[in-house]
Automatic annotation (TrEMBL):
This is Phosphoribosylamine--glycine ligase. The lineage of its organism: Bacteria, Pseudomonadati, Bacteroidota, Cytophagia, Cytophagales. It comes from Algoriphagus chordae. Gene3D superfamilies: 3.40.50.20, ATP-grasp fold, A domain, ATP-grasp fold, B domain, Phosphoribosylglycinamide synthetase, C-terminal domain. GO terms for molecular function: ATP binding; metal ion binding; phosphoribosylamine-glycine ligase activity. Pathway: Purine metabolism; IMP biosynthesis via de novo pathway; N(1)-(5-phospho-D-ribosyl)glycinamide from 5-phospho-alpha-D-ribose 1-diphosphate: step 2/2. Belongs to the GARS family.
């Protein structure tokens, strides 16, 4: 079949890399894609939020499956739109409905969903600008540190952890009154701070059936030792040793099952990926947040460990036939190191020429913020530029392969963290 994949990041390059390995793939189109997807698929100059143009492209190229990578078009309702158009009503789409995408689009909506379905999560209350005084009073009664979350999408930057009451009150005022995160912080969720070890669990669901994909741990902050500003993600490893069989059984029973059953019970159409941010607190899982798509850069560590046909998994999600799919996962480790433009997550210069190694062993290079210049040279086009994933029989080997390749990649002002996975190695 012909497939249309929406997105342009490292996640989408990893999806494309896996999809084209399938014998079921006739032609893969990626909109808009990047310099990496250009080498294995056909990039299409379409905006991921231009729903009319996407519909017309699906019709013109006889697309048999649409895969939505990022959250923005999902939250804006692309699945509902395509299902309501006569020309695309029967085209399978991998991605939840607009209502389902509200699990990521609104922190308050997602917390209320968890409460209704008895999914373990942190205690919370939600406040608007009109309720500022009540919010300030609520803060005075809470333990520190305390977490403040912008209700809406804030490009991964809408979460603040405040260690003093003064900081928490000032931050709440900035978010509600000064619109620190724009309309995303028109509502603010004030949440109990959870302690433990964080991990990401990924679930594929067709709305009735589900498959739990390999788990991962990502590294959000720009500086080594998890210091400095938050980013979209500086690296990831999979599997993680603190997600043993006993813990993952609890995750399935206490989190995954009630979530999938809750979506069905509440008539929330959901055929897509569910990314569950979890805290492992002494062996007990608590949900930090839901995301309604695969994570980035976790995808670049998770997908290389899937041995079964990935396109068949996607087709099972989109057509509601996931129960017949047999998921096979490798016991190998995968470690992803993200290389970023100097200055990221602040301002950075684009157009720097990137030099890649001629040969790589035990490694995949996934493109994120890359493009080709007028001379056909590979250049940086975004903050997160490349995700380098090493494979190995153990974590040490996977990390060694990743860092060996990273050291052979060059461009002016390139930066990466040298401590990805080291905390887990120290636990082993």
């Amino acid at each position: 079949m012909n497939i249309l994949l929406l997105g342009s990041g490292g996640r989408e390059h990893a999806f494309a890399w896996k999809i084209v390995q399938s014998t079921g793939c006739t032609q893969l189109y990626v909109a808009p894609g990047n310099a990496g997807t250009e080498d294995i698929a056909i990039n299409v100059k379409l905006s991921i939020t231009d729903f009319d143009a996407i519909r017309d492209f699906i019709v013109s190229k006889n697309i048999g499956l649409v895969v939505v990578g990022p959250e923005e078009p999902l939250v804006k309702g692309i699945v509902d739109y395509l299902q309501n158009q006569p020309e695309t009503a029967t085209t399978p789409v991998v991605g939840p409905s607009q209502l389902g995408a509200t699990l990521e689009g609104s922190k308050d909506f997602s917390k209320r969903f968890m409460q209704r379905n008895n999914v373990p999560t942190a205690a919370y209350e939600t406040f608007t600008a009109a309720q500022l005084d009540a919010g300030l009073a609520y803060l005075e009664k809470q333990n520190l540190p305390i977490v403040l979350k912008a209700d809406g999408l804030a490009a991964g930057k809408g979460v603040l952890i405040c260690s003093t009451l003064e900081d928490a009150k000032a931050s709440l005022k900035e978010m509600l009154l000064d619109k620190k995160f724009g309309e995303a912080s028109a509502k603010v969720v004030i949440e109990e701070f959870l302690t433990g070890i964080e991990l990401s669990v990924f679930v594929a669901t067709d709305g009735k059936n589900y498959k739990i994909l390999p788990e991962a741990k990502d590294y959000k902050r720009i500086g080594e030792g998890d210091t400095g500003l938050n980013t979209g993600g500086m690296g990831a490893v999979s599997p993680v040793i603190f997600a043993d069989e006993a813990f993952m059984t609890k995750v399935e029973e206490l989190v995954v099952k009630p979530t999938v059953e809750g979506l069905a019970k509440e008539n929330i159409p959901y055929k897509g990926f569910l990314f569950i941010g979890l805290m492992n607190n002494n062996g007990e899982p608590h949900v930090i947040e839901y995301n309604v798509r695969m994570g980035d850069p976790e995808t670049e560590a998770v997908l290389p460990r899937i041995e079964s046909d990935f396109l068949a998994l996607l087709h099972g999600i989109g057509t509601g036939t996931l129960d017949s799919y047999e998921l096979k996962i490798s016991s190998d480790y995968a470690a992803t190191v993200v290389m970023v433009s100097g200055g990221y997550p602040g301002s950075y210069e684009k157009g720097k020429i990137i030099s890649l190694p001629d040969t790589i062993i035990g490694t995949e290079i996934f493109h994120a913020g890359t493009a080709k210049n007028e001379h056909g040279e590979l250049v940086n086009q975004g903050g997160r530029v490349l995700a380098v994933t090493g494979r190995g029989e153990n974590l040490q080997e996977a990390l060694s392969n990743a860092f060996t390749t990273v050291k052979e990649i060059n461009w002016d002002q390139a930066y990466y963290r040298k401590d990805i996975g080291m905390d887990i190695l120290n636990l082993m």
